[in-house]
Amino acid sequence: MQARARQAVKAFDLLPVLDYKSPSGSPTCVTVAGNDVYVGYSTGHVRHFLVSSSTSANGRTKYQVRYLDEMIGSKKSISKILVAPTIARIIGLAENQVFVGDMFSMVGAQSYGRSTPKSVTFISVNEASTSYDLEIAVCQARKKSVLLMMVTSERFITKLEIGNLQAVPQKVLWHGSVLLLAYEGYYSVYNLMSRTELELFPYNTTTTSPLMKTLGEGEIYMNGDGLGMIVNESGDVCRAPIAWINQPKFVCYSKPYIVGISQTSIQVYSLLDQQLKQKSGFNDASSASDFNGNIFIVTEEQIYMLLPIPAEEQVERLIDSGNLDQAMALAEETLGSMTRSKSSRLKALRQRAANMYWTRGELEEAFSLFTQTQTPPTDICSLYDTLFEHTSSEVSVAGLLEDKRREYHVFLLQYLSRSGVRTEELNTIEFKLVALTDPDRMTDFVKEKRSMDMKSVVSFLKAHGFLYMLGEYYASCGFVSEAVEQWRQLEEMEVESRDPRYPGLGCIVDLLLDTNIQAVIMSNVEWLISRDPDKTLQLLISTAAELNNDHVLSLLAERPLHIIAFLEELVINRGTDANRYHTQLAQQYLSLLLSPQTPRNRALNIRKKLQTHLLTSDKYAVSLILNKIQGTVLKKELAILYGKLQEHEKALKVLVYEVHDVRSAEEYCREWPSGRKELHLLLLKIYLNCSDPALRDTLLERAVEFLNSRSSVFNYSEVYKIIPQDWPISLIEPFVYRSLGCQAHHYRTSRIVKGLSELEWARMRADRVGFTKRLVKITSGTYCAFCFHPFSDSNCSVATSGEVYHTQCISQIT
User: Fold this and answer.
1) How far are the Cα atoms of 524, 538, 707 from residue 724, in angstroms, in the given order?
2) Which parts of 129-259 fold into alpha helices (H)?
3) How far apart are CA 723 and CA 608, in angstroms?
4) CA quadruple 549, 551, 554, 559: dihedral positive or negative?
5) SS (H, E, C) 74-110
6) Contacts 24+ apart (CB under 8 A), 651-656
7) How far apart are CA 603 and CA 597, in angstroms?
8) Separation between Cα atoms, residue 55 and residue 440, nearest integer Å
9) Smallest Cα–Cα separation from 98: which of 71, 130, 73?
C-alpha cells in the first residue's frame, strides 16, 4: 500500500541551490526567515545566504542561493539559531552561551549585556506568539528551570521562570499556553495556566534522539521509538503515528506533509492518512529547516531545497492515477482556503473527481462533491444518456447492469430533490427517475402539477408500461378525454394484461366527478353503463354537470331500479319543474309495484315512495296516473289522486268504504293543505250516512270518537245540524264542551275586537274634529305639496303633517 502511495504522487523536488566549501568548519544548524537563510557552524561562525527565484522558459520556477555575509557569534560550535525579523535580530546558542546579532549587517549586538541569560542548554521560539517582539523559552542547566523571555531590540526581558523541574530538559518547545519538554528518556507537557506538568510517553535514548516540531493548527510532532507521535497542545494523541522506515535526525513540515530526514534518506509522509508518499536516498544531512513550505537541507558541501510540487499538480496526478480519495483530501487541505482563483481551480478538480467517482459507481462520494461544487443538475443528468432521448456524452453508464443502474437512478433522484432547481427539463427527468425507482410515488408527483415535457413523458410512460399513470398524467394536464380513453383501453384488456396499478373502473368515475365536464360524461356514459351500471348511476346523480337527462333515461330504460334512482335525483333532490319527469317517476313506481317479480319488501318500500310522491308533487299528470291505478288494489293511491282532482268525497269514500282505513281518512283531512273544517265535516257525513249495514254501527261509533277527538276541527254550527237528534248529550259530551268553549271564546274575542274598534273610531273622530277646527292661511305664496302650483281659491285639503294640497290633488294621492 505504501509502495502504491509513493508511486501515486511526487510531493517534492530536491534541488541543489548552492555548491560551496565552507572555510568555517562543518555546518551544525540552519534557520530560514523569508528569503534569508542562516547557517551556523562548528567554528562559531554564522553565514547569511539570500534565496532568489526566477521563471524559466518552460514556466518552471528556479531558485538560487548566494552568500552575503557572516559573523562570529562565538568561538564554540553553534547548536541553535533563532531569527526575529520584526526586530532584525538573530539569536544563537553556542555551548551554553547566547549571543545576539543584526540579521542583515551580521554585526554582534552589544546592548544586551547583563540581560543575556547564562548557562543555557536549549532555546526555542514561541511559535504561537502574536507579540511584536520575539518570545523564547530558555533552558538553564544550573537551576533546572525554564525561562520564558521576551527579546526586544535592546535586551532580554524575563516574563516567567519555571523552576524546580524534575531534571534539566534536553529540548523545549513553547506553544502558546503550554511547554513541551523533552527529558532524558521521556516527554512531558507543562501547562502555564495551571502550573502543572504531565508526563506523556517514554523513548529509548540509545536509538532515538528527542525531536519536537510544531506542525500548525495546534498539532505538535514528537519523536518516538520508530514512530512519530502527533499530539495536541494538551499532549493528547490526535492522529495516528508516523511509522518511519528510518529514524529521522531532522523533521520539517510543509502542509500537509511531514518530512523526516535521516542519515541515508528523505521520507515524506502525509498527515492526512499517515502514509508514506515519497522516499529518496540522501546522505550526510547536517541540518534542515523549513519556512512557508520550503525546506532547506544543509550538507558539508551543498545547500538543497526540498521544493513542494504545486498542490494542483499533485491533485491532478492523483486523479489521473485513480487515487480520488487521496486527491480530494489533499485538495481540501491545500486549496480549501486559498484565493478566489485557487478556489475556482479547486472546484474544477472536485468536478473532475466527481465525474470519475460517478463512472466508478462510488455514488456517495460523487454526491458529496457534486453538492460542494453546486454542479447544475443538467450537467449530472447528461452523464446518464438513458434519461434523454438524444444525448451524447463522453461519460456514460448506459452499459451498466440493471442492479447498478438502479443505484444511479436513486442517486440522481436524491441530487435533483436536494438541488431545489425546478425547470421543465429537470422536472421531466425527476419524474422518470421516480417512475424507475419508486413507482408508487408517481401519483403524488403528478399531483404537484409541475411543468414537464409532455411528449417525452407520454413516450416514456408508454415505453415502460405505466399506462394507468399515463391516464393520471393526462388528467393532471387537463386532458380529461384522453385520460378516460386511456383507462377505457385498460378496462377492456384482459385482467392478466392490465397495468397492475390500475385500480378499476372507479378511477374513471372519480375523474368524471372531479372534472364535471358534460361532453366527456355524455360521450362515455353508455359505455360506463354497460361496464358497471351501479357506479355509473352514482356518477349521474352526483355530478354537477348539466346532463342530457332524456338521453340518460333512454340509456337506463332497461334498468328500472336505476331509472327510478335517477328520476328521484331529478325530482326530489334537484327539484326539477319538468312535468314529464314527475309523471315518469310515478309511472316507474307503478310499473315496478305492479310487477309480480318485485320482492315484497321492495314493493312495500316503493309503495311508500309512490304515496309520498303523489301527495307532495303537483307536477305529474294526475288523470294519466289515475287511469293506470283504477282497477288495481292501490286504493290509498286512488284516494290521493281523487284529492288532487279536488274530488274529496270520492277520496274519503274510497278510504272508508273500500279500504276500511278510517285512520288514513282522518289523516287525509288533517294533512290536506286547505279546507280542513270542510273536509272534517265531509268525513263526518260519510260516517253518519253509511248505507252498508255491515259498516253502519262501526262507522257510527267512529263518528262519535271523531267528534270527541281534540284533533278534529269543525264548523260547530254545521255539525249540530247533521248529528242525529236522538243522541244523548252525554255521548258527545267532550265535543259539546269543546264547541261551547269555542263559541264562548269566539264571543268574547269578538266583543274585545268590537270595543277596540270603537275606541279607535272615537280617537280618529276626535283627531278629525281637531283638524277641521284648525285655521289654514292661503296666500299667493302658498303652493300645493303635490303639484307645486298656487291656490286660486280657498278650497284645499290639509294633511295631518300640516301640508296643504289641492282637493283634486289629494284624490290622486289617496
Assistant:
1) 71, 60, 13
2) none
3) 36
4) negative
5) CCCCCCEEEEEHHHCEEEEEECCEEEEEECCCCCECC
6) 652/679, 652/682, 652/683, 652/686, 653/686, 656/683, 656/686, 656/687, 656/690, 656/699
7) 10
8) 64
9) 73
Looking at residue 75, its pLDDT comes to: 81
DSSP string, 669-728: HHHSSS-HHHHHHHHHHHHHT---HHHHHHHHHHHHHHHH-TT----HHHHHHHS-TTS-
pLDDT < 50: residue spans in the chain? 1-7, 386-401
Residue 90 φ/ψ, nearest 5 degrees: -115, 140
- In this structure, what C-alpha cell is assigned to residue 660? 276500511
747: how many CB neighbours lie within 10 A of its CB? 10
CB 418 within 8 A of CB 371: yes
Three cell numbers at 735?
265535543
pLDDT of residue 402: 53
Torsion sign, CA atoms 478, 481, 485, 487: positive
CA 126 remoteness from chain centre:
52
- Sheet containing 196-202: give its strands across: 171-175, 178-183, 186-191, 196-202
Beta bridge partners of 229: 222
pLDDT digits (tens, 9 = 90+) for 369-400: 877 777 777 777 777 654 444 333 333 344 44
One-letter amino acid for residue 282 of the chain:
F
Q: Please give the grid coordinates belonging to residue 705.
A: 270518537
**Phi (first) and psi of residue 698, to 5 degrees:** -60, -45
Q: Give the CA angle between residues 748, 752, 753 to the nearest 5°.
A: 115
**Which pTM was predicted?**
0.58
Structure-block grid coordinates of residue 811: 284624490
User: Could you tell me the strand order of the sheet in which 80-84 lies?
Assistant: 80-84, 89-94, 97-102
The torsion angles phi and psi of 343, rounded to 5 degrees, stand at -65, -40
* Residues across the chain: 814
Element (H, E) at 735: helix 733-773
Return the residue matching grid coordinates 346532463: 547
CA distance 757 to 750: 10
The strand pair at 27-33 and 36-41 is best described as antiparallel
* Angle at alpha carbon of residue 129, lines to 248 and 123, rounded to 5°: 50
pLDDT of 57: 66
* Contact between 128 and 87 (Cβ < 8 Å): no
Whole-number pLDDT of residue 364: 77
Q: How far apart (Å, rounded) are the C-alpha atoms in residues 146 and 167?
A: 11
Facing residues of 790 across strands?
A: 783
pLDDT digits (tens, 9 = 90+) for 587-601: 998 888 888 888 989
Measured CA to CA, the distance from residue 381 to residue 479 in angstroms comes to 29
Find all residues with CB under 8 Å of 11, minimum gap 6, and list them: 257, 268, 270, 277, 278, 308, 309, 314
Helix axes 693-708, 676-688, angle to 10 degrees: 140
pLDDT of 342 reads 62
CB 190 within 8 A of CB 227: no
